[in-house]
Design goal:
With 496 residues, this protein is mostly helical. It is built from 23 helices and three strands.
Length: 496
Amino acid sequence: MRDELKLSKEYVGEQEQPRKPWYKRRLVKFLIFEAIFWLIVGYAVYFYSGKPKVRVDYLAQLNELMRGDYKDESNAWPYFESASEKYVELPEELVELLNQSSGDWAEFSEEERLALNEWLAANDDAWNDFLVASEQECCWHEYDPPDAYMAKRSEYDYREISLIECLVEYDDTGMTLRHVAKQGSLRIQRALAEGDWQEAWSYCRALMRAGMLLQNSKGDLIEQLAGLGAGNIAHNELARMAMRPDCPIDMLAEAYTVWRSWFESEDYPVLNYESHRLNLYDIIQRIFTEGGFGGGHMTLRGAEAFYNHAKNACLISKENMNWFIAFWHAGRDDVMEISDAYFEQLYRQEHITPYEQHNNQERSANDIIDFGNSYRYFVPSRMLPNLDSSTKLVHWGRAYYEVALTILALRLWEAEHGDWPGSLDELVAGGYLDELPGDPYSGGSLVYRRDGDEFVLYSLGADFDDDGGVQDPNSSWGQGDDGGDRVFWPRGGINQ
């Protein structure tokens, strides 16, 4: 009874405890709100405070990288630059014509040949400069500040102008050099139609040499890709020449010796991304503060500066560069770390095949920086173009080179034995090839098999499976949903 009474009193006591006065409850809420408010104000002050400090001249670093140990003599760049300036663009009606043809001179009508000859004649000076460039020993140039900037100043101050503003001045040259090289394909086909095999062969050699010079220049990626494209044209045109029944055996032997010697002492050239790395570093130092939490933060002033420097070089709208992005952007240390990881993966992807990357389930460089939704790393995701895909071009270029060498070896074997070999292993055993041509998408060699009196030569393509030598006409390397192989021979694959 006493226990029940005690419990009853305790219960009543609990119920009867007075509530906190209303002003105390409001005071607690106010203090919580005030704490949040001052936290926001404190971060806002931190966010708005600070000023980026430009300490490093990345233009000078890039020029030093470009120069290397090269000499002024035998420099191909002045001739490449002259070829770019003299180039006459292809008329619109001829663009459509060439897009619909395989490039064989015999396919064109008399009227079309006259129009093409007129355009090629207008580009003779540009082509001759390109040929002279291909005979030089090195290729380098310095990047200069824009003329509009230097017209108002007596000397260059790296703190006033960004590296990207210097690089964009040279984009047109790199893009035009790609077109100068492309006309080489037409000149080769025209020479073959006229029976001038030596001229066609000399153009192939010049394209290959010019491509190597540009690709090894360590300059902007556009210039290097122009070189890679020139080399691919040389490989493909040489393979087409070699498979013509009337191709002279002595020319085949000479081309085989030259092509086999290109990379005896070094690997196939890869792309150099240092201009993009230095450009990103330069942008970071111009829009982030230095030191403090996270190594520094992006300021609104820095965000505006980023827009001003980037608007002419990448796809960006001013609406995207608002306070929200600057407020939520990762700190300077994180941006530098993820950018270095991105470039490290790019270089790795150039030295492992797509098959090895796929088989090892390695993430790609693009996976490191999410290009689709990356407000946290907005600056690197906008300043770095899709370089991930450029690493595939390196592997494709190496494949084109090995295909050209393999077809030359096959033709020499056929000329000596009167028939095609039963397998590529016979070419290696007979000394025609040092090793089997690698397939970037299989982990093995390119697929070769006899097909009646002919043969088929192909890669498994980007879907990593063997489709029996069937290529999707809308996807040269099987990147589409339907997959498909990359067929190098029969001839249809070479044309693509």
